[in-house]
Design a protein that fits this description.
227 residues, mainly alpha, 12 helices
Length: 227
């Protein structure tokens, strides 16, 4: 009887280790390359890369994987499979932005991601009403200011503190070359600085007469005398 060559034996063993017996008598090929990796972290990383989230043993990595799976499938209900509340909120915020769906923002429990959701959809759509839903005051002012400057709507500057209010209206007055907005600035020096700026931008010396501070008015007239 001839001896079976050793390389044939090795090939047969490799084939068998990659397969499971089928109860019907056939062979099922196992398509799970990750399970052959030596360490658990390596296996988890492999499963994460292939979005086989249910096989990941690390809770944190599994939740991150599910969030990515939700994004790829564009199914908000997948976010409900996430255990960690912050990661779940991140998942919901991500899909709200992806679908431009503000209703999802209202369902988020984590304050940070809820505020982030309101802010992003407000500024992307110039919907100032969403800004008022933000619970963090500074973030809410950022929201109103960004939309005010994007739309040149100086009325939205009223939602800012006094200093930011003046800066906001000054920029919009300059952008629109509307000297009437200058009158709404709270600080009187800022009002006159705004007026001289608009006078120069529009090359209209008559606007110098609207300036209340005499020394600023003189500077305004001197500018036109020299030009």
């Amino acid at each position: 009887m001839k001896a079976i060559p050793i390389f044939i034996v090795l090939i047969s063993l490799l084939f068998l280790t990659a397969c499971n017996p089928d109860p019907t008598g056939g062979v099922i090929v196992v398509d799970d390359k990750c399970s052959f990796l030596e360490t658990e972290p390596a296996q988890d990383d492999c499963y994460s890369e292939n979005l086989k989230c249910s096989k990941i043993k690390s809770d944190q990595l599994r939740d991150t994987c599910v969030a990515e799976l939700a994004k790829n499938s564009n199914k908000i209900e997948v976010c409900d499979l996430i255990k960690d509340e912050k990661t779940k909120a991140y998942c919901q915020e991500m899909l709200a932005i992806e679908n431009n769906d503000h209703q999802i923002c209202l369902e988020i429990k984590d304050d940070y991601w809820k505020n982030n959701c309101h802010f992003n959809l407000a500024t992307e759509n110039n919907e100032d009403a969403y800004c008022s839903l933000i619970s963090n005051n500074e973030r809410m002012e950022d929201c109103f200011e960004e939309i005010a400057l994007a739309t040149n709507n100086h009325l939205l500057c009223e939602f800012l503190n006094d200093t930011r209010n003046d800066v906001c209206k000054y920029k919009i007055a300059q952008n629109t070359q509307n000297v009437e907005i200058c009158q709404e600035l709270i600080n009187h020096i800022n009002r006159d600085s705004c007026r001289i700026k608009i006078a120069k931008l529009t090359e209209n010396e008559e606007l110098c007469e609207l300036i209340g501070q005499s020394f600023i008015k003189e500077v305004c007239h001197e500018y036109f005398a020299e030009n």
